[in-house]
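Exercise 7. Given the components listed, write out the predicted structure of the assembled complex. Treat all entries as one system.
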Amino acid sequence: MLNPIQVLCSDITSLSLEPEPFASYTEADIISTVEFNHTGELLATGDKGGRVVIFQREPESHEPEFDYLKSLEIEEKINKIRWLPQQNAAHFLLSTNDKTVKLWKVSERDKRPEGFNLKDEEGRMKNLSTVTSLQVPVLKPMDLMVEVSPRRVFANAHTYHVNSISVNSDHETYMSADDLRINLWHLGITNRSFNIVDIKPVNMEDLTEVITAAEFHPHHCNLLVYSSSKGTLRLCDMREAALCDKHSKLFEEPEDPSNRSFFSEIISSVSDVKFSHSGRYLLTRDYLTAKVWDLNMENKPLEIYQVHEYLRSKLCSLYENDCIFDKFECVWNGSDSVIMTGAYNNFFRMFDRNTKRDVTLEASRESSKPRAVLKPRRVCQGGKRRKDDISVDSLDFTKKILHTAWHPTENIIAIAATNNLYIFQDKLNQEMHG
Amino acid sequence: MMMISKGQKRKLHDDVVGCMRSATWESQRQSVLGISLDKYHRGKALVEPSLRRSVLIANTLRQIHIENKPPSGLVKLTGPVPPMVPSNPCTQRESGMGVVNSVEDMEEVWMSSESDFSLSAAVSSILKELDLAVDGGPGPQAPQRTPFMSIENLPGDLKSRQAPTWHWSSEWRPGGSRTSEGVAFGSVEEVMHSSYLQDVKLDELFHDIDTSVFDREMGVRALSAAASDELLKYLPSLSSVPSTSPSPFSLNQSFRDLNELEHIMEILVES
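Answer.
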């Protein structure tokens, strides 16, 4: 079991997408999505400039080294990347920008035939008189060559901005969700999609709620969940009706009247929703908290974790500078025992669901050196202040960790801090325990 | 690092600070109202227009409008009333949004009820403009259109197939209000909107102003989002141009709404 108090050793592979360290970055370099594939061998990042970078784990090394593998340029900022489960030697991933989803094939070539009879090593024809015996060409390892090619373009199905894509457990279909609609696609068919959720009102003046995130159940291919800007979750069963406007279940926590303010609705807006690997729970993130829901209990969450409650008294300023609209993502670890989400000042938080312990860590060059152990951070609100505490007013709100990923089987995490990617490993607890 | 990364020196700033320190609900309400209107107004100039953000701001404005007295249990307004609050707070709001009971009411609470009426009109116009600014749908008046064909698959696809038009089999859709071209309709709206801007009508709209900037834009085949934002920025100059004929193009309407918003801002800031 991951014990967050023992902290993560930072075997930092600090992979900046800028060539020089501390170089100023442009808007285009801001990482907008991070995703491990299903085996954890590959890690993909997308940025606002439309570049996808794929890293591959060094197979031989005991410690996780992720090396740059390939990058490709897609037009427009990338909102999400999702890997398909691997079915043959090649890897496939889906990427989406605001309007269009694309399927890419990532294939490697790491062997080449050698020992031809008629050609020499450089490919020149041999002088036949020098050939005295026949040999069978063999496959020898070569420097890995990676090819990425577009295989499908799924276009013209979204009027509004796509915020989520999710591959179904049937491995044949996937969904794409924008602010008002969710469409179902077959991976092999690009000129047709089925609209399965539509919350657009006839008059846009009546619009009060948008879809913020959506995901398929990991095992039941007929179930999907989508979250809204009003803080609700809707579980839909595609077997019940072709158009899933009526939910099977509605998850909503009643509002706490003592905490009511003008910003109550905004901070209740769910920015991310993720099924647990087991499929029994849902993890959601709203502005101040992360919540775990039991699929069998709709009226309130099972667990509530305060990510940065110290911001509650600052909501007015955060509304004014637009930070209140930041969409933080959240993730489960492989065994569903720990949840993780980002915060400001390049902080990210982990909560152990079993021990109820939590930790705040920081992803930055200044505070982390390779092989060093990450030091837990603390935000103080007044009262007793310890030596390395940071006060709420000193937090850097331009340094936000919105996107994080957790390796499917090991305690390795990838953290996107603006234009930098950090990879951390828990040295003490390398294997995942339940 | 400063809490407020963009420190703006303006009249509202003091109220924002007051909002953080003071417990008076009414002053916070006015501050949030001012910030919200300002946000909405500047939101159209955002590089990445966000429907979610606009809807949340509009909902906040609605809530401010509806909640004209503090929830029970909160500190009542005892301190001096900030300058933005009208001298005679309206007490007749039970009659609903924007409705004024009588002429006397109108005179007594002139400032606040006009603000309320303008506010509800502003909220309406905000949402109408959402359709326009974020994604160019012309609204429910748009006529039925033929389904739109998708982009062909990239070369290298396994089978070459004819691209059929969008359609759904009838058993997939259980009858009801949505047409079988629901999704295509949405995307066709956007395409038709773009091509409409290429029409002659556009020349008429820009008749009186320098069109050299737009000559470049007109050459673009499909009106990109960036181009349409560019256009929207130049539109304020149209307010001085009388619209000769009722244009089906809804920009003129949103223009009047923009002016209304400006008007509200003036009222709030100067009162």
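Discussion: The first strand of chain A starts at residue 15 and ends at 16. Residues 1-22 of chain A have pLDDT under 50 and may be disordered.
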